[in-house]
Amino acid sequence: VTDVNDNAPEISVRSALSEISEDAAPGTVVALVHVQARDSGGNGEVRCSLGEGVPFRLERALDDYYSVVTARELDREQASEYNVTVRAADGGSPALRSSAVLALRVLDVNDNAPVFAEARYSARLPENNAEGALVLTVRASDADWGQNARVRYRLREGRLRGAPLSSYVSVQAETGALYALRSFDYEEVRELELWVRAEDGGAPPLSSNVSVRLLIADENDNAPQVLYPPAPGSGLGSGSGSDLGSGSVWAGVELAPRSAEPGALVAKVVAVDADAGQNAWLSYELAKATEPGLFRVGLHSGEVRTARSPLARAAARHSLVVVVKDRGRPALSATATLTVVLAESVAELLSELGS
User: Fold this and answer.
1) Residue 80: left if φ>0, alpha if ψ -120 to 50, beta else—which one?
2) Tens-digit pLDDT profile for residues 223-280
3) Same domain, 77 and 146
4) What's the domain range around 61?
5) In the chain, which end has fewer C-beta atoms inside a 10 angstrom radius, N or C?
6) What beta strand segments (E) does 218-342 contain?
7) Is 172 exposed, middle or buried (0-12, 13-18, 19+ CB in 10 A)?
8) Strands (E), 176-312
9) Domain boundary among 107, 128, 158
10) Does any domain span residue 152?
11) Same domain, 61 and 148
12) Do 98 and 143 lie in a common domain?
């Protein structure tokens, strides 16, 4: 009886893995298959191969046995499962073929650290904020699976103004939300530089850090402070006429010669503002004067100058009230009171003050 190629090759899987770790070494045996053809001669010669595009290869074990082994390291993050097709073809003409499919799931290994959504974070927080105010939320993702991909956040410890950072801000472990634990004052703390760590649940865990910059935004919560003339009772030069004679300074008293030309400098109101930006931009205005039109105040300089001449007919003593305003919304202000004495000499000034 002459053989006819009428039997397709038979493939039987003798042993096979259903799961394999992604860190399995190249050459790890995945399955052992037995291949045979019932025909004879060339019709019974069998050639085996695997489907294309899979990280596996066939190795001849015995005459009719083949091992399916890993050809390289696996990466679950690229492919979490494989359907490996084992194909067999005999030597007949035409050839007969058969195939078997091996289903294989790749198990995760904690080989990916968390990755933050941004390279660095920054946020602005108005001063005088409420305690517990939400500042921002940092987010990190992990390409692994299950517990290996569970991310928790914590603040890397540091110090600010002698106190631990954890007394200023906190990070919610599950969500990455950053909260202010105290009310900030721009005049004390203008910015915070801190680091947040994201750590996965692997064993051992992997982590990464991100920089967070918190800028405290100024609010107009400071009124201008008049440095000169000093306020009454400040101890900077108040006294009696006899004190003046001994050489001490009577704060806020200025001498203006009656012969002064228009625009002559009489005094300068000096003020500062602890705020920043336009909240600290100051303007000066003459709010009250014993004789209106005799003196003027520079809007931005605070310089008190004569507005007209001659001054011969004017009274000897003049009281000026200067209002200093910032440009905040709403604006805050302070006042300064000056006494200007029209006199040609210090002796005449002392005589007038002594009266």
Assistant:
1) alpha
2) 999 999 987 655 544 333 333 333 334 556 888 888 888 999 999 999 999 999 999 9
3) no
4) 10-107
5) N
6) 225-228, 253-256, 265-268, 270-272, 283-289, 295-297, 303-306, 317-325, 333-342
7) middle
8) 177-180, 191-199, 207-217, 225-228, 253-256, 265-268, 270-272, 283-289, 295-297, 303-306
9) 107
10) yes
11) no
12) no
The CA distance from 75 to 24, in Å, is 10
Q: Is residue 39 in some structural domain?
A: yes
Alpha helices in the chain (DSSP H): 241-245, 346-354
pLDDT single digits (tens) 140-199? 999 999 999 999 999 998 888 889 999 999 999 999 999 999 999 999 999 999 999 999
Rg (CA), the chain: 45
Last residue of a domain, one of 107, 130, 157: 107
DSSP label at 174? T
Please enumerate in sequence order all residues whose Cβ is within 8 A of that of 127, keeping only pairs 6 or more positions apart, or say none. 183, 184, 185, 186, 216, 217, 218, 219, 221
Specify the amino acid at residue 342: L
Strand-pair partners of 265:
305
Task: Kindly report whether the global pTM for this prediction surpasses the value 0.90.
Answer: no
Q: How many CB atoms lie within 10 A of CB 58?
A: 16
Q: If 0-12 CB within 10 Å is exposed, 13-18 middle and 19+ buried, where does residue 189 land?
A: middle
Backbone dihedral angles phi then psi of residue 352, each to the nearest 5 degrees: -65, -45
Q: Are residues 212 and 129 in the same domain?
A: yes
**Residues 101 and 137 both lie in one domain:** no
What mean pLDDT do residues 303-324 have? Answer: 86
Distance CA 95, CA 101 (A): 20
Q: For residue 182, what are its two tokens? A: 């105290």
207: exposed, middle or buried (Cβ count in 10 Å: 0-12, 13-18, 19+): middle
User: Residue 37, exposed/middle/buried by CB under 10 A (0-12, 13-18, 19+)?
Assistant: buried
What's the CA gap between 340 and 130, in Å, rounded?
A: 47
103: in domain:
yes
* Number of domains present in the structure of the chain: 3
